[in-house]
Amino acid sequence: MGASSSTEQVPAEQRKAESLTASTGALPMLQKAFSVLADPQTNTIPLHSLQCCGRMSASTSFNGLFRILAMALAKAGLPEKLQFESDDDGGKMSGFLMPVDVLMLLWMCYIMSWNYKNLESFGGKDHGLPDLSHLVFSAVLSCAEAGVELNPWDCDILSMDVQLPAAKIHLWALKTVPTLTDCLSGYVHGKLEKSFTSENKLDPSCSAAHDLSPIVECNTSLLNQGRAWAISLTLEKHFKWRDYKSKLPQSSLHGKGLNRFWSNVEGYNGPMLILIAASSGDVHNDNGNVRRWILGALTHQAFENRDMFYGSSGSLYAISPVLNVFLPSGKEKNFVYSHLHPTGRVYDPHPKPVGLAFGGSIGNERISIDEDFAKVTVRHHAVDKTYQSGSLFPNQGFLPVEALILDVEVWGLGGRTTKEMQTSYKKREELFTDQRRKVDLKTFSNWEDSPEKMMMDMVSDPNRVQREDR
User: Can you give the residue ranges of the TLDc domain (predicted)?
Assistant: First the structure.
């Protein structure tokens, strides 16, 4: 990386270090940053500075993230709760965290997930800290010792006195939010980009590795900032979460029912996120027995009108009040079921159910929505071999639960191109529909002599005598 001539022999150790740096995919950006950070006399970067650029395992990355949290808590004057072994011993973590500490960690990562150039605009009424209680409750229920009772519908995180072992928190993060460490790497990339850009003029091509700042309708949408960011942490890296702009149907705005739902998602050939808000109690009776929760399903393909299950991949989500993700188990492929009323078909003595479903089998779906989008039925994971096991809402139990649907919302994750293709498809279908509605009389040879005219006259007055013109 220095200004050495082409004839000078490059040491093998330096070539190895540069190759390791190139494997991270950030070598061009680092070269620009090193031109600023290099020693002006030697115009080189010490090799020990390059040795930290290799890809780390997910476990090691999370250890680094927890170290930053521990340093932040220590600077704030709070007692030390985490201890770390030396790097030679693997850098293992011990100790515990409180629920409020987990909330601080998540908020810290949320702020870092913003593009570094946008941090100056962070805050205010539009960019405040989101509600991440569903993530904290997920960590508490997964990591708390046996015997700890938690009612997520009536619980204050700040007042919870529950110790969460560090080892369990580590495992929970690896399973539930595997891309959380990308927030730190994206922030570091932004800092490096900032170091070689002008203070007054920023390069528009420079952006953080993962711009996870969600822009959603916080007042009317089920997908608020906290839920959007939490779901983005569970997605694979090839998903560009900033492309989830396409809001398809929302039952509270566009009307309920499978037909209304279908008219909005038809022609969208890309991954979609379906959110279902339901209540297992009487929403009209204001008492403590009402339990509201939100489920989600991620499909990787377009919806099809079929009388059987289909799909190549997908995930189920318990979103609120506790977040959990259920990935494919690999045993079956009953990912999606979507069936409309058949048209133009003969009598079927055994008709297939009309509605929307995810997982399970026909008649024993894990999540089933009726034709009118009025009720949702949630069954125990024992009936489902497609998705991983787990409760879709707290205290689900073994028996099927039938709940009242409050709202259904769909977001398209295919990006702008997929949305434009759907718009073109809808315009083409509307054109065909208009053409079928119009009758061009000029296509007939003679309307007065046509059989249709004679039949219409007979129906209007069958006793009228038709006089033949000679």
Answer: 221-414
What is the C-alpha separation between 281 and 20, in angstroms, rounded? 57
Among residues 368, 359, 366, 394, the alpha carbon closest in space to that of 380 is found at: 366
Across the range 140-157, mean pLDDT stands at 85
Residues 6+ apart with CB under 8 A from 161: 98
Rounded to whole angstroms, how far apart are CA atoms 391 and 388? 10
The mean pLDDT value for 323-349 works out to 86
Identify the CA nearest to 175 among candidates 390, 336, 22, 427.
390
121's tokens: 């605009």
- Work out whether strand 337-339 and strand 324-326 pair parallel, antiparallel, or are unpaired: unpaired
pLDDT at 131 over 60: yes
- What separation in angstroms does the CA of 315 have from each of 242, 272, 389? 19, 11, 12
Which phi and psi (to 5°) does residue 117 adopt?
-70, -20
Please state the domain extents for the chain: 62-195, 245-413, 423-460
Kindly state the tokens that stand for 265: 């998602």
Whole-model pTM? 0.74
Distances (CA, A) of 376 to 277, 367, 406, 438: 10, 7, 10, 41
- Cis-peptide, bond into residue 321, ω within 30° of zero: yes
φ, ψ for residue 69, nearest 5 deg: -60, -45
Q: What is the pLDDT of residues 421-436, one digit of tens each?
A: 988 888 888 888 777 7
Structure confidence at residue 211 (pLDDT) = 41
Please, are residues 152 and 394 in contact by the beta-carbon 8 Å criterion? yes
Q: What is the CA radius of gyration of the chain?
A: 30
* Mean pLDDT of the region 215-238: 76
Contact 271, 359 (CB under 8 A): no
The Cα–Cα gap between 66 and 230 comes to 18
Express each pLDDT in 279-318 by its tens digit.
986 655 555 577 899 999 999 989 999 999 999 999 999 9
